[in-house]
C-alpha cells in the first residue's frame, strides 16, 4: 500500500519540480529587478529569448558536448536573456521610459524576433526537437534514504535542485550582503542611496541584467525539459505566472520559490491527475482552473494589499 | 586684511539652471566651532547652496575652500571624505530598513562582501554614546518617531566622521520638546569641535542658537550679521526685503451661537488603539479655536472623524445642531464644512490635474460646474479664474497643472476653494506648513477674515506661534482629550508647554506659580 | 530587415500592396481593427484609473462565447431581437468578468495584476469546457467548433459585404468608432470620467473630495471589461461568425494593450494605431510570398514603434537641443523632472 502511494507520489513530485523550475528561475530574476526598483513585465519575452537561444545552441552543438549540452545551453540562454534585458534597462534607466511600456515592448519583440531568426537559420517555422535534454537524475547517496529517497532523490530532475540552490543563494545575497543592501536601497529610496554615494543607475542595471540572466535560464530550462523545441507557442504565459509568483512571494526569493513551486504543482496536477483515482473523475476544467482560482483566494484572504519595494516603477532622475 | 581661519569658505558661488540663477555670486564663511545660520525665504537659494557644499550639485562658477585650501566637491562621497555631512530636511531614510542599515548604507563594514552587522552595531553604539544621540539600532525606520529619525540622520554624518554638519530646516517636523532636544544636541556637537551650518527661516531659533547669520534673498547674499547684534524684526525685514508684521491685526472676537459641538468623541487609529478618548469641544460662529498639541496626541484622527474620513466609535458631532457623526465626507461638506488638509500634496490637490480642475474638486458634481453628469469646462475655468483673481493666486493661468505652482500658491488655491463655498465651519490643519513669512501673513489674515464674517474656524497646528497669533481660544489636546482651554492673551508658552505635556490646567498653573516663587527666592 | 539580408523596400512594398490590394483587403483591415479598438479602449480606461488590466483577453473571450451562445440559442428569432441581445449579453459577460478583479481590488486591495492573469486562464479553460460539455450538441458543427450563427445575429450586412468585395467587413467597426467617441466623451467631459482620472492620479485627495474610490475603481474595471467584451462580441458576431476552442489567451487582449500605449490612450491615437497595426498585420501576410520576408518582422516593427514612443523624452530632448535653445532644454528637463511627492516646500508668492 505504502509503496503504491510512494510510487504514485514520486512522479508527481518530480513533475512538479519539472514544471516549477523554469518558474523559480524567472521569478527569482523578477525579484532582483523589482527590488532594485525596475518593474519587469518583459519576463515573458526574456524567457522566449532564453528558450530560443538555448534550443539553437543545443541543436547546433549537441554532438560536440554531449550530455553537458543542456547545461551549456542554459548558460547561453541566460546570457542572451541578459543581453535582451539590456534593452529594457537602457529604456527605463537612461531614457526614463515607462516600465510597463518597455516591458511590453520586450514581450512583443521577443517571440517575433525568435521565430524570425529561426526562419532565417532553419528555413522553417519551428525547430526540430532537441536530442540532448536533461533527462532524469538520481542522487548517488541520498537515494538510499528510506521513503524520502524514493520520493525526492530518485529519478528526479537536477535543474530543480539547482534552482532551489539559486533561490537560497539569492536570498542570501539580497539580505546578507552589502550588494543586496545597496540593491534594495535603490528600490526603496533611490534618492537616499544617491546621497550616500551609491550609484543608482549601476545598481538598477545590475538588477535588470540579473533578471535577464535568470529569466533566460528559466526559458532555457523550460524549452529543454518540457517543450523540447522552440516554436511560437513555446512560452505561453510562463513569464506572467513567474511574475505572479514573485508578487505572491512578496518579493522575497524564498517566497517566490515557494509560490513558483505551488504554481508548478498546480499546473502539473491537471495533467497528471488523470492517473490518480479520485482526481480523474473531476471534469478537467475544474482541475485546470483550480490553481488559478486558489491563488486568487489565497491572495484575498492572506495577503491583502500588494506592496512591493517603495520606489518600484518610478524612474530616478539625478539632477546635476 | 587679516586672514581669518574659516573652516568653510564659499566664494562667488553661482548656480544656473538654464536661464534661472538659483545662486548669484554668493559668499559664505563659516568659522570653526560656530553655528552659522543661513536665513532666507523658501526658494531663496539656501538649499541649492548647501546642495553644492554637500556634493549633490556642482556650481556653475565659484570656488570652495576648506580650512584654507581649495577643494572640489564632485559628489556626496567626496563631501563625506572632506568631513562635510548633510542632515536633510526630508529625511533620506529607507523606511523598510533598520536604523543600523540606514546609517551604514554606502559605507558598510563587510567581510568578503557579507555585511558585518555586529561591527556595525558596535560602531553605531559608540558614536551615539559619544554625542549623546540615543537610538535603537535594530528598530525599523517606519516604526520610530520623527525625532528619532532625525537622530539617525545626524548619526549618518557623524558615523562618516563629519566635522561640518549642515542642518536643512531641521525643526520643520519636530515638536517643541524635540526642538529643544535638538538645540541641546547642536550645542553638544559644537562642544565636541564640530561646526554647524543651520538652514532655516525660523527667526526665534536663530536667536536661540546661532552665532552668526547670513541672509539670502533671491539667490544673492544680502548680509552677514552677528545674531546678538540684531533683532528678529531686522532679520525678517532683511529676509523679505520689506517690513513684515508678525502679529495679525484683529479686532476682538464676538462669538455667537455654537456651530460645532463635539461630545465625548472616541476615535480609533489605524492599529486599533483609541486615539481620541472622549473629547468634547465647542466652536462658535465668529471665533477661531486653535488646537495646540504635540503631534500624535489625536489631532489627526480628530480631524479625520470630523470630516468623515474616519469612523467615530462613539460620541457625537453636531453642526448647527444637526448630527453629522459618521456621515459620508460629501454629506459633511455639503452641510457646510470646509477643510484645508495638513498634507496639501497628498490630500489637498491632484498635482497632475489643472489648477481649474483642482479648484473644482469639491463642487464639480453640482451645477453650474456640471449638469446631469456632464462637466461644463467653460464654467469650471471661469470659476477658477475668478478665484485666482480674488485670492491672488500667482499662476500663469488656470490651465497649468497644479504641480507647477509654488507651495504658497497651492495653499492659497486650496483655501480659496474652501472659503468660497462659504462654509459655516472651516477646519484647517497645519495651514502654513513649509510656507515662508509672507505666505503665512496672508493666510492668517484670511482666517481672521472668515471669523469676522461670523463663521467658525478650527485650527490645528504644531506651531505655537501660529496658534497664539490667530486663535481667540486655545484648546490643548493631550492623549486624545482636551486638557485645558486658555485665552491666548493671558497664557504663556510655558503654560501651554505644560498643558501639551499632559498637565491639567490647575496643575500647570500651580507648577508655574511654584517656579516663579522659587525664582524670587 | 536590412540586417537579415532582405530587401526592406521590397518588403514594405509587398506589405502595402497586400494590405491595399483590393477592396476586400481594405475591408479586412477594418475587420481586424474593430475588436482591437475595443480592447485598446478597455485598457486605456482602466489605465486612467491607475489599473493594469491584463485580463482583457479573458474578458473578450467571455464576450465572444456569450454572444455566440445567445445567437445560437435564439436562431429563429428576428434580427431586431437577437442581434442587440447577443451584443448586450457579450458586453455584460465582459463587464462581469472584469468586475471580479475590480471588486477584489476595491475591497481587499488585492493586486489586479495577479487576479487578471489568473482569470485569463480560468476563462480560457471554462470556455473550452462550455463548448465541449455544456453547450447543446445541436450547436456544434465539429468537436470544439460551433455552428455558424444565422444572419439574424450577424453583424455582417449584405451592403458592406458587397462594398468590400466579399470581405468580412461588418458593422463592428462602426460600433467601435461610436465607442471611441463615447469613451472620449466619458473620460473628458463627464463627472464619472473626472472621478476615474482623479482616483487614478491621487486616490487620497479623491477620498478627501468626497469621491468613493471603491465605487470608482469597480466602475472603471466594469467599463474596461464591457469594452473588452464588446471586442469579443465583434470577433464572434462579425469576424468569425462562430466560436472555436482556443489554445491560449486571445491575442487581441495583449495587442489591444500595445495599441493603447501606442496611441497614448487617446481616442484618436487608438484609432490610428489600430489601423496602423491592422495594416501591418494584414500586409505582413503578403511579405513572405512577395518579398520573402518572414511575417514576424511585423511584430518586431510594431514593438520598435512603441519603444520609440516610450523614449519620447529622449526625442524631445534631442529636438530641443537641436533647435539650439537652452531654455527649451531646461524646460524639458524641468517638466520631466521628478516631482517630490513629500515636498511641502513653499515658495515665493
Automatic annotation (TrEMBL), chain A:
Pfam families referenced in this protein's UniProt entry, alphabetically: BPD_transp_2
CDD domains tied to this protein: TM_PBP1_transp_TpRbsC_like
Keywords: Cell membrane, Membrane, Transmembrane, Transmembrane helix
Single GO MF annotation: transmembrane transporter activity
GO cellular component, one term: plasma membrane
Ranges annotated as spanning the membrane: 36-59, 71-93, 99-122, 158-175, 205-224, 230-248, 260-279, 285-304
Record flagged with keyword RNA-binding: no
Record protein name field: Sugar ABC transporter permease
Biological source species: Enterococcus ureilyticus
Amino acid at each position: 500500500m505504502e509503496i503504491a502511494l510512494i510510487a504514485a507520489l514520486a512522479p508527481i513530485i518530480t513533475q512538479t519540480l519539472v514544471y516549477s523550475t523554469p518558474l523559480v528561475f524567472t521569478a527569482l530574476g523578477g525579484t532582483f529587478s523589482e527590488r532594485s526598483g525596475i518593474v519587469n513585465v518583459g519576463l515573458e519575452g526574456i524567457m522566449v529569448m532564453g528558450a530560443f537561444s538555448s534550443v539553437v545552441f543545443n541543436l547546433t552543438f549537441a554532438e560536440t558536448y554531449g550530455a553537458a549540452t543542456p547545461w551549456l545551453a542554459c548558460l547561453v540562454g541566460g546570457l542572451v536573456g541578459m543581453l535582451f534585458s539590456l534593452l529594457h534597462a537602457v529604456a527605463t534607466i537612461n531614457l526614463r521610459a515607462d516600465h510597463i511600456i518597455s516591458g511590453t515592448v520586450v514581450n512583443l519583440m521577443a517571440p517575433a524576433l525568435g521565430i524570425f531568426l529561426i526562419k532565417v537559420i532553419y528555413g522553417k517555422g519551428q525547430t526540430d526537437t532537441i536530442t540532448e535534454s536533461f533527462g532524469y537524475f538520481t542522487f548517488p547517496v541520498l537515494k538510499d534514504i528510506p521513503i524520502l529517497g524514493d520520493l525526492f532523490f530518485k529519478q528526479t530532475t537536477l535543474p530543480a535542485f539547482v534552482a532551489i540552490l539559486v533561490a537560497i543563494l539569492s536570498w542570501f545575497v539580497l539580505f546578507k550582503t552589502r550588494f543586496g543592501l545597496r540593491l534594495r536601497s535603490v528600490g526603496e529610496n533611490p534618492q537616499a542611496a544617491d546621497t550616500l554615494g551609491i550609484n543608482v543607475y549601476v545598481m538598477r542595471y545590475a538588477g535588470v541584467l540579473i533578471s535577464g540572466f535568470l529569466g533566460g535560464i528559466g526559458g532555457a530550462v523550460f524549452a529543454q525539459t518540457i517543450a523540447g523545441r522552440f516554436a511560437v507557442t513555446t512560452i505561453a504565459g510562463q513569464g506572467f505566472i513567474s511574475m505572479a509568483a514573485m508578487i505572491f512571494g512578496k518579493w522575497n526569493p524564498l517566497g517566490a520559490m515557494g509560490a513558483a513551486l505551488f504554481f508548478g504543482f498546480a499546473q502539473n496536477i491537471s495533467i497528471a491527475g488523470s492517473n490518480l483515482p479520485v482526481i480523474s473523475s473531476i471534469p478537467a476544467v475544474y482541475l485546470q482552473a483550480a490553481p488559478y482560482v486558489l491563488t486568487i483566494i489565497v491572495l484575498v484572504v492572506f495577503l491583502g494589499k500588494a506592496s512591493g519595494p517603495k520606489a518600484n516603477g518610478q524612474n530616478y532622475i539625478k539632477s546635476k | 586684511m587679516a586672514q581669518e581661519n574659516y573652516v568653510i569658505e564659499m566664494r562667488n558661488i553661482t548656480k544656473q539652471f538654464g536661464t534661472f540663477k538659483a545662486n548669484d555670486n554668493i559668499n559664505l564663511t563659516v568659522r570653526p566651532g560656530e553655528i552659522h545660520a543661513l536665513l532666507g525665504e523658501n526658494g531663496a537659494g539656501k538649499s541649492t547652496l548647501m546642495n553644492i557644499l554637500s556634493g549633490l550639485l556642482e556650481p556653475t562658477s565659484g570656488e570652495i575652500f576648506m580650512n584654507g585650501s581649495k577643494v572640489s566637491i564632485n559628489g556626496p562621497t567626496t563631501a563625506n571624505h572632506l568631513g562635510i555631512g548633510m542632515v536633510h530636511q526630508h529625511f533620506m531614510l529607507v523606511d523598510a530598513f533598520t536604523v543600523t542599515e540606514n546609517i551604514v548604507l554606502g559605507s558598510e563594514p563587510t567581510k568578503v562582501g557579507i555585511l558585518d552587522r555586529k561591527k556595525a552595531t558596535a560602531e553605531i553604539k559608540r558614536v551615539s554614546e559619544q554625542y549623546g544621540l540615543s537610538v535603537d539600532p535594530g528598530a525599523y525606520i517606519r516604526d520610530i518617531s520623527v525625532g528619532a529619525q532625525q537622530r539617525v540622520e545626524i548619526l549618518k554624518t557623524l558615523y562618516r566622521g563629519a566635522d561640518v554638519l549642515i542642518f536643512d530646516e531641521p525643526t520643520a517636523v519636530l515638536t517643541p520638546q524635540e526642538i529643544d532636544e535638538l538645540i541641546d544636541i547642536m550645542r553638544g556637537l559644537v562642544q565636541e569641535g564640530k561646526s554647524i551650518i543651520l538652514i532655516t527661516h525660523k527667526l526665534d531659533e536663530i536667536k536661540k542658537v546661532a552665532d552668526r547669520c547670513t541672509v539670502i534673498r533671491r539667490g544673492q547674499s544680502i548680509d552677514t550679521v552677528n545674531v546678538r547684534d540684531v533683532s528678529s524684526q531686522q532679520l525678517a525685514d532683511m529676509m523679505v526685503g520689506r517690513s513684515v508684521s508678525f502679529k495679525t491685526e484683529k479686532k476682538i472676537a464676538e462669538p455667537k451661537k455654537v456651530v460645532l459641538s463635539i461630545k465625548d468623541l472616541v476615535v480609533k487609529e489605524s492599529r486599533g488603539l483609541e486615539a481620541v478618548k472622549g473629547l468634547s469641544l465647542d466652536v462658535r460662529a465668529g471665533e477661531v479655536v486653535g488646537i495646540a498639541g504635540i503631534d500624535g496626541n489625536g489631532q489627526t484622527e480628530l480631524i479625520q472623524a470630523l470630516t468623515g474620513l474616519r469612523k467615530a466609535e462613539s460620541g457625537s458631532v453636531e453642526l448647527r445642531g444637526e448630527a453629522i457623526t459618521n456621515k459620508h465626507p460629501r454629506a459633511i461638506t455639503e452641510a457646510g464644512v470646509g477643510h484645508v488638509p495638513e498634507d496639501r500634496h497628498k490630500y489637498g490637490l491632484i498635482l497632475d490635474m489643472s489648477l481649474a480642475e483642482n479648484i473644482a474638486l469639491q463642487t464639480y458634481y453640482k451645477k453650474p460646474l456640471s449638469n446631469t453628469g456632464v462637466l461644463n469646462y467653460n464654467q469650471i475655468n471661469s470659476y477658477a479664474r475668478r478665484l485666482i483673481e480674488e485670492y491672488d493666486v500667482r499662476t500663469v493661468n488656470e490651465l497649468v497643472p497644479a504641480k507647477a505652482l509654488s507651495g504658497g500658491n497651492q495653499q492659497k488655491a486650496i483655501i480659496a476653494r474652501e472659503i468660497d463655498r462659504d462654509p459655516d465651519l472651516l477646519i484647517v490643519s497645519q495651514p502654513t506648513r513649509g510656507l515662508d513669512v509672507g505666505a503665512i501673513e496672508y493666510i492668517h489674515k484670511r482666517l481672521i477674515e472668515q471669523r469676522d464674517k461670523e463663521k467658525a474656524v478650527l485650527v490645528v497646528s504644531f506651531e505655537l506661534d501660529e496658534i497664539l497669533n490667530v486663535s481667540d481660544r486655545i484648546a490643548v489636546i493631550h492623549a486624545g482629550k482636551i486638557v485645558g482651554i486658555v485665552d491666548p492673551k493671558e497664557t504663556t508658552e510655558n503654560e501651554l508647554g505644560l498643558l501639551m505635556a499632559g498637565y491639567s490646567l490647575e496643575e500647570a498653573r500651580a507648577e508655574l506659580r511654584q517656579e516663579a516663587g522659587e525664582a524670587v527666592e | 530587415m536590412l540586417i537579415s539580408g532582405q530587401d526592406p523596400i521590397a518588403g514594405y512594398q509587398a506589405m502595402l500592396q497586400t494590405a491595399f490590394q483590393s477592396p476586400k483587403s481594405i475591408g479586412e483591415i477594418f475587420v481586424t481593427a474593430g475588436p482591437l479598438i475595443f480592447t485598446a479602449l478597455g485598457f486605456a480606461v482602466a489605465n486612467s484609473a491607475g489599473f493594469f488590466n491584463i485580463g482583457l483577453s479573458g474578458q473578450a473571450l467571455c464576450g465572444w462565447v456569450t454572444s455566440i451562445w445567445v445567437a445560437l440559442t435564439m436562431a429563429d428569432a428576428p434580427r431586431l431581437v437577437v442581434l442587440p441581445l447577443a451584443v448586450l449579453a457579450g458586453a455584460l459577460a465582459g463587464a462581469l468578468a472584469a468586475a471580479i478583479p475590480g471588486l477584489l481590488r476595491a475591497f481587499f486591495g488585492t493586486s489586479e495584476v495577479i487576479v487578471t492573469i489568473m482569470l485569463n486562464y480560468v476563462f480560457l479553460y471554462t470556455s473550452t469546457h462550455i463548448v465541449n460539455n455544456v453547450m447543446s450538441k445541436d450547436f456544434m458543427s465539429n468537436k470544439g467548433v460551433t455552428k455558424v450563427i444565422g444572419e439574424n445575429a450577424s453583424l455582417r450586412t449584405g451592403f458592406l459585404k458587397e462594398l468590400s468585395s466579399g470581405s468580412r467587413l461588418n458593422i463592428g467597426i462602426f460600433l467601435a468608432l461610436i465607442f471611441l467617441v463615447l469613451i472620449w466623451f466619458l473620460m473628458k467631459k463627464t463627472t464619472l470620467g473626472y472621478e476615474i482620472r482623479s482616483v487614478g492620479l491621487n486616490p487620497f485627495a479623491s477620498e478627501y473630495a468626497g469621491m468613493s474610490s471603491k465605487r470608482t475603481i469597480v466602475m472603471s474595471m466594469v467599463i474596461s471589461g464591457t469594452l473588452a467584451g464588446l471586442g469579443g462580441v465583434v470577433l464572434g458576431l462579425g469576424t468569425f461568425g462562430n466560436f472555436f476552442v482556443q489554445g491560449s489567451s486571445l491575442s487581441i487582449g495583449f495587442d489591444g494593450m500595445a495599441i493603447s500605449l501606442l496611441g497614448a490612450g487617446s481616442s484618436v491615437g487608438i484609432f490610428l494605431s489600430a489601423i496602423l497595426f491592422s495594416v501591418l498585420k494584414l500586409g505582413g501576410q503578403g511579405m513572405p510570398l512577395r518579398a520573402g520576408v518572414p511575417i514576424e518582422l511585423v511584430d518586431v516593427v510594431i514593438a520598435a514603434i512603441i519603444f520609440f514612443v516610450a523614449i519620447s523624452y529622449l526625442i524631445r530632448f534631442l529636438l530641443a537641443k537641436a533647435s539650439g535653445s537652452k531654455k527649451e532644454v531646461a524646460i524639458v528637463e524641468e517638466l520631466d523632472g521628478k516631482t517630490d511627492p513629500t515636498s511641502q516646500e513653499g515658495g515665493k508668492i
